[in-house]
Design a protein that fits this description.
By secondary structure, this protein is α/β, with parallel strands linked by helices. The chain starts with 5 loop residues before the first helix and ends with a helix. The chain has 15 helices and eleven strands. The longest helix is centred in the last third of the chain and has 24 residues, at 298-321. Strand 4, helix 5 (101-109) and strand 5 form a beta-alpha-beta unit.
């Protein structure tokens, strides 16, 4: 059985799965591994560090044998960093969290497919009007930055509002069951982050990966404290979902106190990031961590998720085809 959607047809994929562009986690090696396995890997350009992007985009471009992409945080992007990314000739460009219109023209002129991630119906309509080729409807269950709408009701609402622009689902999806469910909601595929954070090729610290495997959904929380200590002034309504740790529990609800203590807190936090101290440094992760039980190669994960989704879809078909 093969899963065929607008997404698989557009890019020649085996499975309708995108790797989420997790900043500094979805590097070139992970993106290439996902793409070569029959899904589509996206390098997480994040805030647009030029040196990091040159290094990782070069790896993705050289190691990917199939389509791949790059993603940026829209409100922090610049024309220069978009043009830098386009020099590596990605097949897809994803913009998340902000108005994509300033960057649509150069992305389209380069022949890239434009994907816009949204968190509500209003922004979905705006992305459609801006010229998005695909729209990602991201629910609040997602790891990392997002807003407040839940995935299950948001996805079909965006599917209806954005039609005929195809939609992907994101937020709390880590296995084939989630992929199959998203397809039943009208999505053409899914964007997965947390599951691939716990992939062998992901750039995150091994301690962070082990923490994801050990965590449960109740261990995650949306917060602003990690943005404050990193001096990233995210606009409303975005917060970040991370695993609770000592730093979060100390400062969540005391954001003004943290802002006043940055001279002391920033050096300690930066040292924790360098050393992989996940009791202080954040581990962005979604609510579906309950369903992640191992650290595995990306290719194995893609195949596993695809096979699970196929089994679920066969089961669903039998629910209507079997006479009683």
């Amino acid at each position: 059985m093969a899963i065929r959607t607008n997404l698989t047809e557009r890019f020649g994929l085996e499975y309708p799965i995108f790797l989420a562009p997790m900043g500094k986690i979805s590097g070139g090696r992970l993106a290439a591994a996902v793409s070569n396995a029959g899904a589509l890997g996206i390098v997480g350009g994040g805030y647009g560090d030029p040196a990091w992007m040159r290094s990782e985009l070069s790896v993705a471009a050289s190691e990917s044998k199939r389509p791949w992409g790059v993603g940026l945080i829209t409100w922090h992007a610049t024309r220069e960093i978009v043009e830098l990314a386009l020099q590596y000739e990605p097949d897809l460009f994803m913009l998340s969290f902000g108005d994509p219109r300033p960057y649509v023209s150069p992305i389209k002129a380069a022949g890239c497919v434009l994907v816009c991630q949204v968190q509500d119906v209003v922004d979905a309509r705006a992305a459609k009007e801006a010229g998005a080729d695909f729209i990602v409807a991201q629910g609040t269950e997602a790891g990392g930055h997002g807003a407040s709408r839940a995935t299950l009701p948001l996805v079909p609402a965006v599917v209806d509002a954005a039609a005929p622009t195809p939609v992907l689902a994101a937020g709390g999806i880590v296995d084939g069951r989630g992929l199959a469910a998203a397809l039943m909601l009208g999505a053409q595929g899914v964007l997965m982050g947390t599951r691939f954070y716990a992939a062998t090729e992901a750039s995150g610290h091994e301690g962070a990966k082990r923490r994801i495997v050990a965590a449960r959904g109740g261990d995650t929380q949306r917060t602003r404290v990690f943005d404050i200590v990193r001096e990233h002034e995210w606009p409303e309504p975005y917060t970040g979902r991370a695993l609770r740790n000592t730093f979060l529990e100390r400062w969540h609800g005391r954001e003004e106190d943290l802002a006043a203590a940055l001279d002391a807190e920033i050096p300690a936090f930066q040292a924790a990031e360098r050393e992989g101290d996940v009791d202080t440094a954040m581990v962005w992760a979604g609510e579906a961590v309950d369903l992640i039980s191992d650290i595995a190669p990306a290719a194995e994960l893609v195949t596993r998720i695809g096979a699970e989704a196929e089994a679920c879809l066969r089961y669903a078909s039998n629910l209507t085809n079997n006479p009683r």
